[in-house]
Design a protein that fits this description.
With 494 residues, the protein is an alpha+beta fold. It folds into 2 domains: 194 residues, set domain protein methyltransferase, domain 2; 242 residues, set domain protein methyltransferase, domain 1, CATH 3.90.1410. Helix content is 36%, strand content 11%. It has a 3-stranded antiparallel β-sheet, with no helix packed on it. The chain has a two-stranded antiparallel sheet with strand order 1-2. The chain starts with 8 loop residues before the first strand and ends in a 16-residue tail after the last helix. 42% of the residues are buried.
């Protein structure tokens, strides 16, 4: 995890840390399967004709289409062809397409994945490397080879996207205070570290297999291509590039991710192979773009990091709170044992999205971290198997007050780190902005809205503390010593 915490906000027993970014490296390997959208040169005119006769389609794309036709992958009957769209390149329906109708099928012999690397000249060298690194090296090497089997596909790949890993320092300065900035820095450090290792261990000792110098810039290019274009969730495939299929663009209006299958089928006149089957999740009219949903669960920060765009949906705006059991806590060992027994650890990360409920385990973990004073009896071994159930409900007024105060203070601290206000960002969004500045403004505005949302939840909760039922009241009720209105029942001796 890439986490950069704000200064700890401490109580007498614990330290709360609110992270200034958490986007998990689980997205690095295996990489997410989402196609990229952007060519190096911006294109604006929509193509409704075939690539062969549409002058707005770049020559290299037309050559790429002809290659696919020669390979038997496409034909005049193929339902979608490359076209120039506002996003760059996309797939345009050549006739009406029904929901779940097959748009394109690409045989495995044209896939670029770890299997393709293993069968290549560098396969033995890459056997012990992370899958994404093996494919990255393969991509770079093939890019430098004029006789590459994927030459015409490589020629249409962009030199960069609007992913934040490609931003200049000046552009990144617009992300001041955001979690995305610290995540981008962390990812760039990670990629550079991996490059230095693979350069020393693989590239330099095997110059005969890597005749062209491979630079860090080349490695970032390959990382960006894989980050933005790789498909996964196929049978046995966690990282695969599919030529032509990766031209398809994203739509936030599509609410299903069911669009890709690996099937067995005819891969030519006399061949049988695994096929990547791309299907349209919704009906599409002739001349319209065929679109898919890249990932319903990704935040705008993740979309910006992976693909170089953000979604207009407010629910994509997220912020990750990092909570930690401090080693200085006198009950550190007991709390850590309880956390680990319930699937958590010393540090816990909670992704919160605008308008959504708090993660289910967040309040129990908060109460555990804040537990102390007269409430510490719940940490005794006799409660060890039941304490998490008690933490799912308010423990005490003091415990809930501490939680509310610390989270509100943490949100205020995070909000002070941005160099603009929500109102200023809103005014900027009314103007025509450079795509990267538009992303930056959208990200920082979204994060601030989520922080205000979180602060509001705990401010409202603080106002209702006197109305909550706490552990001691529940316990007295269980023993029959407390009425429904909370009054203590006294028994008079007979």
């Amino acid at each position: 995890m890439v986490t950069h915490a704000l200064p700890g906000l401490s109580s007498s027993t614990s330290t709360f840390l609110v992270s200034h970014q958490t986007i998990s490296f689980r997205h690095l390997y295996p990489l997410a399967r989402r196609p990229s959208l952007h060519l190096k040169k911006p294109l604006t005119v929509t193509s409704l004709q075939s690539p062969e006769c549409d002058p707005s389609v770049p020559a290299e794309v037309q050559t790429f289409w002809n290659w696919l036709r020669d390979e038997g992958v496409v034909s005049p009957k193929t339902l979608a062809k490359p076209g120039v769209v506002p996003e760059g390149l996309g797939l345009i329906a050549q006739r009406d397409i029904a929901r779940n109708e097959v748009v394109l099928e690409v045989p495995k012999r044209l896939w670029i994945n770890p299997d393709a690397v293993a069968a290549s000249e560098i396969g033995n060298l890459c056997s012990g490397l992370k899958p994404w690194i093996t494919v990255a090296l393969f991509l770079i090497r093939e890019k430098f080879r004029n006789d590459s089997a994927w030459r015409l596909y490589l020629d249409i790949l962009p030199e960069y996207t609007n992913s934040t890993i490609f931003w200049s320092e000046e552009e990144l300065s617009e992300l001041q205070g955001t979690q995305l900035l610290s995540t981008t820095d962390g990812v760039k450090e990670y990629v550079q570290s991996e490059f230095l290792k693979v350069e020393a261990e693989i590239i330099l000792p095997n110059k005969q297999l890597f005749p062209s110098p491979i630079t860090l810039e080349d490695f970032f290019w390959a990382f960006g291509i894989l980050r933005s274009r790789a498909f996964s969730r196929l049978r046995g495939q966690n990282l695969v590039l599919i030529p032509m299929a990766d031209l398809i663009n994203h739509s936030s209006k599509i609410t299903t991710e069911d669009h890709a299958w690996e099937i067995k089928g005819a891969a030519g006149l006399f061949s049988w192979d695994s096929l990547f089957s791309l299907r349209s999740p919704i009906p599409v009219k002739a001349g319209e773009q065929v679109l898919i949903q890249y990932d319903i669960n990704k935040s705008n920060a993740e979309l910006a990091l992976d693909y170089g765009f953000i979604d207009s949906l407010e629910s994509r705006n997220g912020f990750t709170l990092t909570l930690e059991i401090s080693e200085s806590d006198p009950y550190y060992g007991d709390k850590l044992d309880i956390a680990e027994s319930n699937g958590w650890g010393e540090t816990a990360y909670f992704d919160i999205f605008l308008g959504s409920q708090l993660p289910q385990a967040m309040l129990p973990y908060l109460r555990l971290v804040a537990l102390g004073g007269t409430d510490a009896f719940l940490l005794e071994s006799i409660f060890r198997n039941s304490v998490w159930g008690h933490l799912e409900l308010p423990v005490s007024l003091a415990n809930e007050e501490l939680i509310c105060r610390v989270i509100q203070d943490a949100c205020k601290s995070a909000l002070s780190g941005y160099h603009t206000t929500i109102e200023e960002d809103g005014k900027l969004k009314e103007r025509k902005l450079d795509p990267r500045l538009e992303i930056a403004v959208g990200i920082r505005e979204g994060e601030k809205k989520v922080l205000q949302y979180i602060e509001g939840i705990f401010k409202e909760r603080e106002l209702e503390l006197d109305q909550l039922e706490y552990y001691q009241e529940r316990r007295l009720k269980d023993l029959g010593l407390c009425g429904e209105q909370g009054e203590i029942i006294f028994w008079e001796p007979k």
